[in-house]
Amino acid sequence: MGLKIEDYKEDKELFRSETHFKSRITGKIEKRNGRNSGMGLGSVLFIVFLILKLVGVITWSWWWVTSPLWIGTILWILIVGGIIDYFKNK
User: Fold this and answer.
1) Which of 12, 16, 25, 37 is 20 to 30 A from residue 64's alpha carbon, by CA?
2) Domain locations along the chain
3) How far apart are CA 22 and CA 2, in angstroms?
4) Helix, strand, coil: what percent of the chain each, to 5?
């Protein structure tokens, strides 16, 4: 009972489909990981300002300590609002 050519072809197709499936999964995971690489600049600045405020190095108002969190949001809202207004009045 030797191996037939058909058996080899089936094994080769199975290997090819498993490899393709694994590469699709790994590609999706890599793409997903690339989108969100961790903390942004605003988050890092907020943590730095918070620590400096709690230690007493800076005497800023809490509004300025938390500013890296809300300034980015306000800028985003203004930019999106400007784009919407531009296309509305075009």
Assistant:
1) 37
2) 1-36, 38-90
3) 31
4) 80, 0, 20
